[in-house]
User: Which sequence fits this backbone?
């Protein structure tokens, strides 16, 4: 990387926001009587050390998957808030296929992944159709459609698919062999590879194809892109379908990984959708930036538990750090009179 690009990255709003968040987080830690150096060391050791890297990569699989799912429409100025519903439908669809498919285990796993992606894509496409033909804003339709999807999955896990004799709202366990291969004894599965391949495909599409150029131009100026011949409705439907497919893939990966069943609330409770949206916003939906910011938030999420054990500081502080980063990023982007900001932003996007 050339020195001018390095300096541009260091001066970027993202770098400023992250550093500001770390600094204010240190002040919060001092206010609680904790040592900031010890606390941040616990975060890094607990998330990147030998005992924590597996959890970070497992968490990062879901965070990155949702971040990519939300970044793809966001690149075109479209906000998909229905990640929870699309992910849960993908998960419950994978569970149904895994439980009832008569095919051999490897084919059942493949079919469950594809079925989860199809369920998420179709449900996200429904939100796009609501905007295109009924005039319901995508922000509203995608969010509200999540509630019936989550409720349906909850009903299936608690009644028709419930494990007999269990007091937990969960489906029966997947048959033997119906699971994603794991790396060694860790909880990291091939799902991480699938999500990384999706990130690579997003980068290639964004930087090397005509549709990627149309998406970026629509995000920068929707009216200009329409004058240039980009059909807004068709683009919305395509992007939402891809977005929903990725969210459904994350749900299917969650079911085909430990504990190898659909547990009501297990996919939505960690807040992967909102963490993924935060990561996509921090990276301005750029492909490589989305990968890096997703890993950053996965480190914070896993490292927060280690920090709580070491310093007695609640892990909720890491959520405060995430919020501070986004607030500073939004404030920096809107500050008037920043000389050369637009040119630096273009250079930063080219770097990413």
Assistant:
């Amino acid at each position: 990387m050339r020195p001018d690009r390095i300096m541009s990255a260091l001066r970027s709003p993202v770098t400023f926001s992250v550093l500001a968040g770390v600094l204010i987080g240190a002040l919060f830690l001092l206010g609680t009587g904790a040592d900031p150096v010890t606390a941040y060391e616990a975060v890094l050791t607990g998330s990147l050390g030998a005992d924590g890297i597996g959890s970070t990569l497992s968490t990062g699989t879901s965070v990155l998957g949702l971040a990519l799912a939300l970044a793809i429409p966001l690149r075109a100025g479209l906000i998909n808030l229905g990640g929870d519903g699309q992910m849960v439908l993908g998960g419950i669809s994978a569970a149904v296929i895994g439980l009832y498919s008569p095919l051999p285990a490897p084919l059942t796993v493949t079919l469950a992944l594809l079925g989860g992606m199809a369920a998420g894509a179709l449900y996200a496409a429904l939100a796009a159709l609501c905007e295109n033909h009924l005039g319901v804003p995508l922000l509203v339709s995608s969010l509200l459609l999540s509630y019936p999807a989550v409720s349906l999955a909850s009903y299936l896990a608690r009644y028709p698919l419930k494990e007999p004799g269990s007091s937990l709202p969960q489906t029966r366990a997947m048959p033997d062999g119906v699971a994603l291969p794991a790396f060694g004894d860790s909880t990291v599965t091939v799902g991480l590879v699938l999500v990384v391949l999706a990130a690579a495909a997003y980068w290639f599409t964004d930087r090397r194809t005509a549709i990627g150029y149309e998406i970026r131009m629509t995000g920068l100026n929707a009216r200009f892109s329409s004058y240039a011949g980009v059909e807004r409705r068709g683009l919305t439907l395509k992007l939402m379908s891809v977005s929903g497919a990725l969210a459904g893939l994350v749900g299917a990966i969650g079911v085909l990984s430990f504990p190898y069943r659909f547990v009501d609330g297990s996919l939505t409770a960690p807040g992967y959708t909102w963490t993924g949206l935060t990561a996509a916003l921090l990276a301005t939906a750029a492909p490589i930036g989305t990968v890096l910011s997703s890993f950053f938030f996965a480190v914070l999420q896993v490292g927060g538990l280690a920090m709580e054990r070491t310093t007695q500081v609640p892990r909720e502080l890491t959520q405060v750090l995430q919020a501070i980063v986004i607030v500073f990023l939004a404030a920096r982007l809107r500050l008037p009179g920043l000389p050369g900001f637009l040119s630096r932003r273009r250079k930063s996007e080219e770097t990413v």
Remarks:
- The radius of gyration is 21 Å.
- The chain has 15 helices and no strands.
- Residues 335-352 have pLDDT under 50 and may be disordered.
